[in-house]
Amino acid sequence: MIKLIEIExxxxxxxxxxxxxxxxxxxxxxxxxxxxxxxxxSGKSTLLHIIGMLDDMSSGEYYFNEEPxxxxxEKDRTRLHQQNIGFVFQQYHxxxxxxxxxxxxxxxxxxxxxxxxxxxLVAEVLDRFNIVAKKDLFPNQLSGGQQQLVAVAxxxxxxxxxxxxxxPTGNLNSKQGFEIMDMLKELNDQGVTxxxxxxxxKKAEYGNRIVNLMDGWIEN
Length: 220
Hints:
The chain is of the alpha/beta class and about 220 residues long. It has helices at about 45-50, 75-85, 100-110, 115-130, 145-155, 175-190, 200-205, and strands at about 1-10, 15-30, 35, 60-65, 65-70, 85-90, 160-165, 195, 210-215, 215-220. It has one domain: Rossmann fold, CATH 3.40.50.300. The protein is built from seven helices and ten strands. It has a six-stranded mixed sheet with strand order 6-7-8-3-9-10, with helices on both faces. A four-stranded antiparallel sheet has the order 2-1-4-5, with helices on one face.
């Protein structure tokens, strides 16, 4: 499903290249739950953002469902990630001046989903995540756990093939964190591919495979 070949990411000036990722090679199959681990500065989030098509690689090849992402124009990459990838971030990234309902609706607007279908899809995820009573509240009226729940619901509303989660429990207490992880595992059991970045070994164990990064390299 996802194939990375000799991916590198670096920043350069006239005299030196500073590498963030070096010689990244790995394959992720449909339905896997991958945990990417490593210390701060090891390149975890950069790798996740490249997989999510939010950041460009400096060199290498990236195939998503056999489409050569490294050869696509920006508008085609945007289309590919909007149709296939949902994101969950540590900072939630909800839009402060939109209600829960409007936050959930936003990715559907980007996909140009018709009004009646949007209404149905939002109602479905509100019910699925048991947040119907929160639909008219704004993010600052929710707890951290509730905000992350909305963020997961927003990622799921486009029916993505892949969910990318960057430290999804980093701002939550222990109980809330494991509730979010249980939800991601449930989604994975239903066939959604999950790729998470975490520094927490217990959260990493939710994955069926752990990829360790150190100084931009994958450790074998």
